[in-house]
Design goal:
The structure holds three protein chains of three kinds.
Chain A: H1 9-29, H2 33-58, H3 62-92
Helix pairs in contact in A: 1-2, 2-3
Chain B: H1 2-23, H2 27-47, H3 51-76, H4 88-110, H5 130-139, H6 142-163
Helix pairs in contact in B: 1-2, 2-3
Chain C: H1 3-24, H2 30-54, E1 59-68, E2 73-80, H3 82-105, H4 112-131, H5 135-153, H6 163-195, H7 200-209, H8 220-236, H9 245-248, H10 254-263, H11 268-275, H12 277-280, H13 284-305, H14 311-331, H15 335-362, H16 375-378, H17 380-393, H18 400-415, H19 417-442, H20 450-455, H21 461-476, H22 493-498, H23 514-541, H24 554-560, H25 565-612, H26 619-641
Antiparallel strand pairs in C: 1-2
Classes of the chains: A mainly alpha, B mainly alpha, C mainly alpha.
Chain lengths: 105, 171, 645
């Protein structure tokens, strides 16, 4: 592999934006709660990608550390989110998001 | 040259599998497609020489979190498609909104002039190596590192507490 | 002790007495409470005496700077010069005597300690007023005495029979004072705007040097300032048109009437005009206004006093009348003579009021002179001192009132003989009603009830001692300012003494020659003696009594009904203002409340109801709106920063 190969930063920006938009689209469309959570994870990953590309481009390691922490937080969030989901399923017997509207004003 | 092609290929495949995650009707298939997407993204990390993060991405994300998702799916026995169809109008609105968001993001970032320390994007750099990353992590960011352990404790406690079955009351 | 330390203790002692009595008075015995009140004022009097001995030149003591702006400063500073020391002497001296009197008079009152709190507070405020070196501190004291007057007039506000009328009288006094205060505030603003300072000495210097914009003889600005100042003086010193509060203020306890409405507060207006003499000298028009109003007030009040039957009301109208005389002196530019009359008036009016208090106390709280009579045998000391006071106020020769009145009407004769005639008529009326009061109260047969006759007694020494002191002062007070006829060495001592104060020494008075002075003195003396004889004949020999209310006709009815002055004010001013208030209430209250405030609340509620529907509980819609928000955010950023090329 040639090290003189250059991929412009724009490529990663557009790629990350596309992945992010796909994740957002998924959250708006899907009504299965678990798939919803997965689309959120997808959005986080898009952001991770952007961070890492910027970090390599700038030569600054701080952004990769931040990605590390994003992964940490995503793990914790997925855990808690899924446990809440299980609890809700026990009561409502379904994971259709449109039924989870008890908090409406 | 080849690195460029591989990078672009990996990017395209990642987008494709992400689309499948969203559009797939079976929840289990969505999970599997997401795992595949993670693999492709890790590939991209490796192309940028962020080795540590690539491995961590696989281990933590694809290995632990997605397995957790699968567990919950199997636990709730949602293998078959139990999801009602969303109305078409929602599809249209969401597509439009998503598209507009994408366009706007691209427009905002299209003319940015990045001042970087390097003239070109050299994939082979030392930033992502484990030693360098560990150096920064344990000197500059040691406090958030310690605090994230507290975060994990609270997440674990929360998960256990939330998912516990209520004791049957004596009526 | 330095001057400033003395000054601070002078001011703080009455305040301290007020605080102690106010906070702890309930737990103190009556003797201690009253003792503290009296002692603080007595010590203040001694301090003022040391000032009197030491001060030969004005001393200004600045305590601290209150307001500091680019264009002007306002300091809390005090001016110790002859005029302020003299006024402080009167205040603390007569104040001490009245405190002593109150210890006996108010002994049976429940609010004993409250009374002394308010009295001490009043002394403090009045001292602020006379010792202040600028209009700001003066205004502070001015308001303070207004408040204390309100508190003291309405002191018995919870009295079951007269409580409401006491409160109404207090309110009337306060409101009328307030109208005058507006004049003082306007004048202060104009002064501040023109001279950029409120200090007396600075303004006096600027006026003397000239060159201040808008200030020249009889200019519009100076006339406006002086008339506003005089308006304030009419409020405090009870001149036309703001005098009707003073007779009503007799609802307060008698020591209050003696201290506030005879000796001190009502002279605040006179003091202020004297202090501002440099302004009034530039506005002869304002001085003419003062002259005419003084004469008119004197005459009208004397007329009203002729047929009053409450012993205190007669004295109240006589106070208004005497104040009119002082204002006449001010209008003639004879400021030191006005202060001289303030002094002698303080002596004999306080004496008369305290004497009437003693009478009321001995008569078990009876105030109507038609129920009195023959008291000279029962209350000898009160009788003798009251007689001395009456002779002094009527201008009987060689008593103090004779000298002070004579000086004023002497100047008036030179200026304006017609007004002199009118003033003489008013003085005649003064003698008439005072002697009427004296004879009906102390001579003849006792006309009261049996119960009162059994309990009638002379007052204790704590009450008669001040009477005796004041009587001596009323007799010999004239020595302060003897005309040049009698002694050349010590003549006009007060005039000379006061001329050291700001500006007072430079004013020229119209002097009359010796013959005219002797003639006027002779006229005044003979008038006074003649009326004494006539009154004696009418009331004692012929035994004519005050008529019952239903028998009054003609001028007597007018006099007894106070020329219907209060009713006139009520119809002209009070009722329209009340009507206006009612109308505004209907319009503004109803329209503003219903349409405005409730409408606003209803609008908020409706809006909230609509916005509430956004919260439908679905996560997807929330995210949708978040996406929309994000889009708008980035679009706005783009619009601001992007280069459209």
């Amino acid at each position: 592999m040639g090290s003189s190969a250059t991929v412009n930063i724009d490529f990663f920006v557009i790629l990350a934006s596309l992945l992010f938009v796909i994740g957002a689209f998924g959250v708006m469309i899907r009504r299965n709660m678990i798939v919803l959570l997965m689309c959120i994870e997808l959005m986080l990953n898009a952001v991770n990608l952007l961070f890492v590309s910027f970090s390599t481009y700038y030569g600054n390691a701080d952004a990769q550390i931040f990605v590390f922490f994003i992964i940490v937080v995503a793990a914790a969030e997925a855990t808690v989110g899924l446990s809440i989901l299980i609890l809700a399923y026990r009561h409502l017997r379904s994971i259709d998001v449109s039924i989870f509207n008890k908090l409406k004003g | 040259m080849i690195a460029t092609i591989i990078t672009q290929l990996l990017g395209a495949l990642a987008v494709a599998s992400a689309m499948m995650v969203v559009l797939s009707k079976h929840p289990v298939r969505s999970v599997l497609y997401l795992v595949v997407t993670f693999f492709f993204i890790s590939g991209l990390y490796i192309m940028m020489n962020a080795q540590f993060l690539a491995i961590v991405n696989i281990i933590v994300y694809a290995g632990a979190i997605m397995v957790l998702f699968l567990f919950v799916l199997m636990l709730l026995n949602l293998n078959k498609d139990a999801e009602p169809k969303t109305p078409t109008i929602i599809w249209i609105i969401s597509t439009v909104a998503g598209g507009v968001l994408f366009l706007v993001l691209v427009a905002a970032l299209k003319d940015i002039v990045l001042v970087s320390q390097k003239d070109d994007f050299a994939p082979i750099s030392n930033i992502g190596l484990v030693e360098n990353l560990g150096n920064t992590l344990f000197t500059k960011f040691v406090v958030p590192f310690e605090i994230s352990s507290i975060l994990f404790i609270s997440a674990m406690v929360g998960a256990v507490l939330l998912a516990k079955r209520d004791k049957p009351t004596i009526d | 002790m330095s001057i400033s330390m003395l000054l601070i203790s002078l001011l703080c002692l009455p305040l301290l007495g007020a605080i102690i009595n106010g906070l702890y008075g309930k737990h103190l015995s009556k003797g201690i409470s009253g003792g503290i009140g009296t002692a603080t004022v007595a010590i203040s009097f001694l301090i003022v005496l040391t000032f009197f001995g030491q001060i030969s030149e004005p001393v200004k003591v600045t305590l601290f700077r209150l307001i500091h702006l680019d264009s002007f400063d306002i300091n809390v500073s005090f001016l110790i010069d002859q005029l302020s020391v003299w006024m402080a002497l009167i205040i603390t001296g007569i104040g001490t005597l009245i405190h002593l009197f109150s210890m006996g008079y108010m002994k049976h009152d429940e609010g004993y300690y409250k009374f002394f709190t308010y009295l001490n507070l009043f002394i403090f405020a009045m001292l602020l007023l006379v010792l202040g070196s600028n209009y700001f501190v003066l205004f502070f004291g001015w308001e303070g005495v207004g408040i204390c007057s309100f508190l003291l007039i309405g002191f018995h506000y919870s009295d079951p029979i007269k409580g409401i009328s006491n409160s109404l009288a207090a309110r009337k006094a306060f409101v009328m004072n307030r109208i005058g205060d507006a004049g003082l505030v306007f004048a202060a603003f104009m002064l501040l705007n023109t001279f950029h300072t409120l200090e007396f000495d600075s303004i006096a210097k600027m006026v003397k040097e000239g060159g201040v914009e808008g200030i020249s003889m009889n200019s519009i600005l100076i006339i406006a300032i002086t008339l506003c100042l005089f308006l304030a003086a009419t409020g405090k010193s009870a001149q036309i048109p703001l005098f009707t509060w003073l007779p009503d203020a007799m609802a307060g306890p008698t020591p209050v009437s003696a201290l506030i409405h005879a000796a001190t507060m009502v002279t605040a207006g006179i003091y202020m005009v004297t202090r501002s003499n440099f302004l009034f000298e530039l506005a002869p028009y304002a001085k003419d206004v003062m002259l005419y109003i003084g004469v008119a007030t004197s005459l009208v009040a004397a007329f009203m006093a002729l047929r009053q039957n409450d012993i205190k009301k007669v004295l109240a109208y006589s106070t208004v009348s005497q104040l009119g005389l002082m204002v006449v002196a001010l209008g003639l530019g004879a400021y030191t003579v006005a202060i001289f009359h303030v002094t002698t008036h303080a002596f004999f009016k306080a004496l008369l009021f305290l004497g009437s208090g003693s009478v009321i106390h001995g008569m078990s709280d009876e105030q109507d002179i038609r129920m009195m009579g023959g008291l000279r045998k029962i209350m000898p000391i009160t009788h003798l001192t009251f007689l001395i006071g009456t002779l002094a106020i009527s201008g009987f020769p060689l008593f103090s009132g004779f000298y002070s009145k004579d000086e004023i009407i002497g100047y008036l004769f030179v200026e304006n003989p017609i007004l002199y005639g009118v003033m003489m008529f008013s003085i005649v009326l003064t003698a008439v009603y005072m002697f009427r009061l004296y004879f009906l109260t102390f001579h003849g047969e006792f006309r009261g009830t049996e119960h009162q006759k059994d309990h009638a007694h002379e007052s204790p020494i704590s009450m008669t001692l001040p009477l005796m002191v004041l009587a001596v002062l009323s007799v010999f007070g004239g020595l302060l300012n003897l005309p040049g006829l009698f002694l050349h060495q010590g003549a006009h001592w007060l005039n000379h003494y006061l001329s050291g104060a700001a500006g007072l020494g430079l004013i020229e008075h119209p002097e009359s020659n010796v013959n005219t002075t002797l003639l006027l003195m002779g006229v005044a003396s003979s008038v006074s003696i003649a009326i004494l004889i006539w009154a004696y004949v009418t009331y004692v020999k012929q035994g004519s009594l005050a008529k019952a209310d239903s028998d009054l006709k003609g001028w007597e009815l007018l006099s007894s009904k106070k020329l219907y002055w209060d009713e006139l004010y009520h119809a002209l001013i009070t009722k329209p203002v009340e009507w206006l208030g009612e109308q505004l209430k209907q319009v503004i209250e109803i329209k503003v409340l219903n349409a405005g405030i409730f409408g606003l609340a209803a609008l908020t509620e409706k809006t909230g109801n609509q916005v509430r529907k956004l919260q439908n509980g679905l996560v997807s819609s929330y995210l949708f709106w978040m996406v929309i928000g994000l889009i708008m955010l980035i679009v706005s950023y783009l619009i601001n920063t992007i280069h459209w090329n």
